[in-house]
Amino acid sequence: MSHHKLRSKRGFTLIETMIAITVLGVGLLAMAALIAKAAVTSSSSRYMSTQSLLASEKLDDLNRLSSSDPDIAVTSGGTAGNLTSDSSQTVTVGATNYPVDYFDQVLISNGNGAITETLTSSNASGTVYTTITHSPDGQVLQTQSNTAPASSADTLLFNRRWVIEQDVPVVGVRRITVLVTVQAQPPAAPFQMSMVRP
């Protein structure tokens, strides 16, 4: 009888310990999956908010131009630009032809508390890199160069493309649509925004 009492007071058996470890392991795996999903969702949200900001910025830039500016003029076929590929066209305003790009690239990095935005565009002399640095103290510094800036591990590359449609949705206005994509892993959904102006 005393042998039976001693046996019942020995503690956990090996089977009970294995079951407890299995339950703990399943719980930890579920937590790890939840944390991974939250990280992906956080990155996706960051990309979408930046894409929205870049699309809005481009629409504001194009909206500031006069209606006779070559960058928003539509001279052939009622449409200028392309959302599916980088597009350049020669636009005629008056008697003058102007080469116009309907795309650019934006590099954004966040280092030392400053946000650096580099716009890539082209002109008659080649590729131009315009870098705008926003410091934490509110200072804004803009530089231009013909050589690409060095990128860091936190640099994100955004591609912007836009299309200008004459007399859409009604006669006498232009609809401008901007599409922003980010080159990131995992891939993020593109973001598109439009506006109508005279």
Give an overview of the whole structure.
This protein has one domain (42-197). Strands 1, 4, 5, 6, 7, 8, 9 and 10 form an eight-stranded antiparallel β-sheet that branches. A two-stranded antiparallel ribbon has the order 2-3. Strand 8 (156-166) and strand 9 (174-183) form a beta hairpin. The chain is elongated. It has helices spanning 2-8, 14-64; strands spanning 79-81, 88-93, 96-101, 103-111, 114-123, 126-134, 140-145, 156-166, 174-183, 191-197. The protein is built from two helices and ten strands. The N and C termini lie far apart (99 Å). Helix content is 29%, strand content 39%. It is an alpha+beta fold and 198 residues long.
List descriptors.
198 residues; alpha+beta; eight-stranded antiparallel sheet; two-stranded antiparallel ribbon
Shape: elongated
Order of helices and strands: HHEEEEEEEEEE
What amount of the residues lies in strands?
Answer: 35-45%
Q: Helical element count? A: 2
Mean pLDDT: 84
The value of Rg in angstroms is 28 Å
- Low-confidence segments, given as residue ranges, are none
Helix content range of the residues, please? 25-40%
Tell how many strands the DSSP assignment holds.
10
Report on the biggest sheet. 8 strands, antiparallel
Distance between the termini: 99 Å
Structural class: alpha+beta
Whole-number total of structural domains: 1
Quick structural summary:
With 198 residues, the chain is of the alpha+beta class. The protein has helices at 2-8, 14-64; strands spanning 79-81, 88-93, 96-101, 103-111, 114-123, 126-134, 140-145, 156-166, 174-183, 191-197. The chain has one domain (42-197).
